[in-house]
Amino acid sequence: MTTFIEQERQKQEDIDDEPHFHKKLTCRSFLCSKLVKGVLAALVVAIVCPVVAYHFAISRHYDDGSSQTYSCLVQQEYRIPCGYVGIGEDQCTKVDCCFNTTTGECHHYLPSKYFYQQSSGDIYSTSYSKSPVGSKIVENIQFTATENGKKLLLVLETSSKTNAKQSSSVEADMKNFKINYSSQRLTLEINDSDNDTIFNSANSALIASENYWEWSFQLSNEKLFGLDRNIITLSGNETLTKVIYKNQVDHNTQPVIWALKNSKFYGVLIKHSGPLEITVLASNIVILRSLIGKRIEVELTLGPTPAELYKNQVQDMGLAPKWALGTHNCRKGSEVDLVKLLQIYALDTYSYDANCIHENLFMSLQQENSFGGNLTDFRTTLESLVSSSKFVLSLPPHILAYDNNSLYASAVSLDVLYKDRSGNVYLGKYLKLPVSYPDFTHPSIEDFLKVLMQWIKDQIGLEKISGFVLNNNWPQDDSYKATLNTSFPYMTDKLNEQMVYTLPWNVNTSSNISHFEVHNTYGSLQYELLYNYTTEKENLKDFFIASASKNFADNEPEISHNFQTSWDNFKVYLEKTMFSSITGDYMIGLPVCGDGNSYNKELHETLCLRWYIAAASMPYFRISSDDPYRDPNSLNTLYTTNAVTTTISRRKLFQEYFYTILSKKEPLIRPMYYDYYSNNATYSLENQYAIGTDVIVAQPLTSGKSKLQVYLPEKRKIWYELWGGAMFTPAKKDNYYVTIDIIESDWIAFVAQGSIVALTDSNKLNLYVALDCTKECTANGELYKDNVYISFTATNTSVTVNNLPDSCEYTLGYLKYYGYNATSGYAGRYENNDNLCPGGGSSTTITYITDSK
C-alpha cells in the first residue's frame, strides 16, 4: 500500500543527478586536493547519508505489521502527535513514540506502532494493551464498510467477539468504491471508480481505549474545505483544530470536510455523539480523537461536482415558511424581570417581520408564574406585537427549579430531569437562576412536553406564537467551570474550553448514561420533539422552529450565539455561512454586527453597516444583542441608520426570490467554486459569493475602501451591475477580475446575462432583465409565488409571464432591462403599472420598448 510520504514523493520532480565536469585544470586540481576531498567526504556523511536513510526509511512500502521497519524521520507536516499534552522525552520513549528534541514534541513512528491486526473476518485485535495516554486499550474491534449509492459508511466499534466471518458488506462488489486492505494491519486505501485514492489510513495510528479513541487518515493531497473555513489553507507545522462538543464557544461547527482531487469533489462526515477533537495537518491528514469509545463512523460521499456532492450528501433539505425569510429581532441580556424586559422591548421602535420581545421571556414568565405575578402588561404588549408582525418565542430547555413552578413540579413528578451521580435532580445555573434540565431521551418526555405546551397556551396563547427559537440548548450551564485535566486520560485546552458552561460530563440520563456520551444530540432531540408535536398534535401551519444546536442533516434553521464584533469575525461570518449553506445548513442566522460585548458603535459603525448589507443577502436575517444594541435605530449616526433602513427595505424585495431557490432544495448562498470550480481563482475568494446561479455579491473586508476587485466568471461571458446595468466583460487575457468604484453603503451585486431576477413588493413584481445578446437578445427567470412557479421569458422588446394563477392581482411595478448591441451596452427602465392578470389565460406579454436597440 502506498504511504503518505510515498504519494507526496511521486509528485516531486527527479533531481538532476548528472555529474558536471569542469575542464579547467585549475578547478580540477582544486577539487582533487586532499583538503577538499576531506571536506566533501564529510559533507557526504553529514548530508547525503541522512537523506538516503530518510528516503529508504520513509518511502519504503510497508504492509506486514509483524515485520515492520519503523522510523522517526518524518516530515513536519506528517507528524501525528502522540501521547498526552506536554509529554516529556522519557515518557514519550516509554510509550513507543518519537520525541523531537528540537521542537519538544512527541509524535508517532512511521508507521505507528499502535494498530489493530486482523484476527478473523472483520474482527481485529490490538498491538498494545495500553494507549500512549495510559488508558486500557480495547482488545478487539470490528470494522465494517457499507456502500449505499454514492455513499460509503465506515464503522469502527468495540467487539466482544474474537472471530467472525468477513462482513458481507465488505465482501460484496462495490459499484462506486474500491477498498484495498493491508494483509494483516487494519489500514485502508479507498479509491473511487476512477481508481483515484480518496481516503488513506496507511501507517496511521488506530487506538481504541477507555475514554480515548484515535484514528487518522489522509484525504486529498490537493484542497480541503470545511470546519468553518471556506478553504483550509495550512503550511509547515500549521494545524487546524476544532472540537465538536456544543457549548457557548462553538455550537454550530459540523464535522464535515469536503476534498478536491483530480478535479473531483467528495465529502467526509464524522458521526459521533460525544466530545470529538478534529485536527487537520498541512499534509491534509485528519486526526480524530474522541473521549468516549464504543463506536465511530466516517461517511464518504462522492460528487464529482460540488452540486452533485451537495445532492448526494445532504439529500433531504428542509424548508422554513416563507415569512421566516424576513427580518428577525430578539434582544438579549441578563435581565429576567418581566417589567424590565417589556421596558427594553419598548425602546426599539423599528418594525420587523418577526420579534421575540426578549430572549429571556420564557424564564421570566416561569418566574412570574411561580410567584403569582401580574401578566396583564405582557399580554397587552403581545397583542400589539402580533397585530403587525410575527411573535417567535425563545424557548431554551431550562426549567426554573422553584418548588412553586408548576413546570418544575411536573418534571419532577414525571422523573424526566437529569440526575447527578447521587441520583438527585441535577441543578445548574442559567441567568443566575437555579435550573434543571429535561432528559429528552426519557420514556415519559412526551408527557412532559404536553404539560409544557399547555403551560405555554395558558401563559401566552399558542395561537399568538408563529415559531420557537431554541436558544442556548446545547444546553447552557453557567455553574460548570471545571478543569477536566484529571478527569480524562487525554485533555487539551480546546477540549476543556468546549466542555464547560454546559451540563457536566458525568451527570446521568434516565438510562444511566453519562451525558457527555450523548451531548451533541441534546439540541436535536429537543427540536425533533417540538417539531413533531407542533405538526402532528397541534397541526400548526407555517410554524417556524430554529435551534442553536443541531446535527448534520437535521432540517431546522440554526442560530448562532456569542459572536464578537470585528472585521475578522465578519470574514468568519461570510465563510461560515457559505460552507454551511452547501452542506445542508440552508438557513443559518448569525447575529448582525455580532452579539458579544466587544461592540463599540463609534468604532464599528462602518463594519456594522457592511454587516447589515451582507446579512440582507443571506437567508436568515437576525438581529440579536445585549446593550449596546445593534438595531437600526440604535446605530451611531443618522446616515448609517438611513443606509441600513434602505438595505432592509431592499432585502424585503428579495424574500420570494430567495424562497424560489430554496424551494428547489438548492443552496441559496454558494461559495464561488460551487458553480465555477474549473477556475482555480475561485477557491481563494473570501469576500464574494453567489445567490443561486445568476447573482454574485461582493463585500469589502476592511473599512475605507473606494475600489473593489470582483471576480466575474468567464463562463457567463457578460455580467451586469444589478442595480444600474453597467456591463462587464471579464474574460480579457485570463483576467477575470473587474475593478469597480464603491462607497460604504453599496450593496455590490451583479447579474449574469440571460437571467431575469424577479423581486416582489407584495403583489407588485419588479423585474431585472439581463439580456443575453450573443445571438438574439433573450433572458429567462422564474418566481415561486402563491404555490405556483411563474416563469418569465424576455426579448429585447417584450417580456412574457407564464403560468399565472387563474385569479391573481399581480402588477408589473417596474422593469429594468440591460442589453448590448454590436457597439455598446445599454440600460433602461419601464414603469407603467401593468396588470399581469387580465384574465382569460395563464400568460400575458408586456411590450416594454417599441424599438429594439
From TrEMBL:
InterPro entries registered for this protein in UniProt: GH, Glyco_hydro_31_C, Glyco_hydro_31_TIM, Glyco_hydro_b, P_trefoil_dom, P_trefoil_dom_sf
Keyword Transmembrane helix attributed: yes
Bridged cysteine pairs (disulfide): 72-98, 82-97
Domain P-type: 70-110
Keyword annotations of the record: Disulfide bond, Glycosidase, Hydrolase, Membrane, Transmembrane, Transmembrane helix
Residues annotated as signal peptide: none
One of the Pfam families matching this protein, by short name: Trefoil
Transmembrane region(s): 38-57
The keyword Protein transport is annotated on this UniProt entry: no
GO molecular-function term, one example from the UniProt record: alpha-glucosidase activity
Listed GO biological process terms: carbohydrate metabolic process; N-glycan processing
Protein family (similarity comment): Belongs to the glycosyl hydrolase 31 family.
Protein name: Alpha-glucosidase-like
Organism expressing this protein natively: Sitophilus oryzae
